[in-house]
C-alpha cells in the first residue's frame, strides 16, 4: 500500500512546493515508484518538474485518474498535473456537494501501483488542504527557519488533529522539516531550538539550507537534485529522503 504524504502549511513561502518536488525526486531516484499530485492552483509543482498545467484538473474530470498521470524526466517519478481553471479550483475547494468525497475516492483509487504519493497543497487550511489530509496517511509540514516560523501553526495543527479524529483515522503526523536554514544567523538557531523543543522527535534531523541552486532549479523545470546534484540543497533533500524512507 502506498504511503500518501500531504505536504502542507497554511503559510506561503516556506518551501512547501520545493519540498514536495525534491522529496518526490529523491524517492524516485531511490527506486520508489512515486506520484506527485499538484493540488495548488498556482501549479508550481507541475512546472517545477517540466510539465504544463492542464485545462481541466484530472481530479474533477470524468476520466479515470490513471489516464491523466504523466511521466517526468526522472525515472519512477510520475505527475498528476495541476490546473489554473477557476471553475476547477472552486470544485476542488468544495464548491459542489460531495466534492470532498469524490476527490478522496479519486486520490485513493489506483494508488497501489505506487510506493509513495506526495500531494502538494495550496498555502491554506481550506477545503482543498483538508481533502488532501483526509486522503493521506501522513502529513509533512515544512517550516521556515525564520522569525514567523511558529505563526499560524496553532490553526494548522488543529485542522490536522480534526482530520486525524475522523473515521477511518489513518492520518498520522509524518514530520516537520526546517527549510531556508542559514547557520550563520543566531535567529536561525533560536527558531530551530524552539521548534525542536515544542515538537520533539517529529522534527526531522535534516535541515534544508538556503541555497540559490534550490531557487534556480524550478526555472529549468527540474528538481535541485537533478539540476545541481553536488549542491548543499541537493544533499539536504537526499538526506531528508533517507529519513522519510527510514520512518517507513
UniProtKB/TrEMBL annotation:
<dbReference type="Pfam" id="PF13614">
    <property type="entry name" value="AAA_31"/>
</dbReference>
<feature type="domain" description="AAA">
    <location>
        <begin position="3"/>
        <end position="166"/>
    </location>
</feature>
<dbReference type="InterPro" id="IPR050678">
    <property type="entry name" value="DNA_Partitioning_ATPase"/>
</dbReference>
<keyword id="KW-0378">Hydrolase</keyword>
<dbReference type="GO" id="GO:0016787">
    <property type="term" value="F:hydrolase activity"/>
</dbReference>
<dbReference type="InterPro" id="IPR027417">
    <property type="entry name" value="P-loop_NTPase"/>
</dbReference>
<protein>
    <submittedName>
        <fullName>Soj-like protein</fullName>
        <ecNumber>3.6.-.-</ecNumber>
    </submittedName>
</protein>
<dbReference type="InterPro" id="IPR025669">
    <property type="entry name" value="AAA_dom"/>
</dbReference>
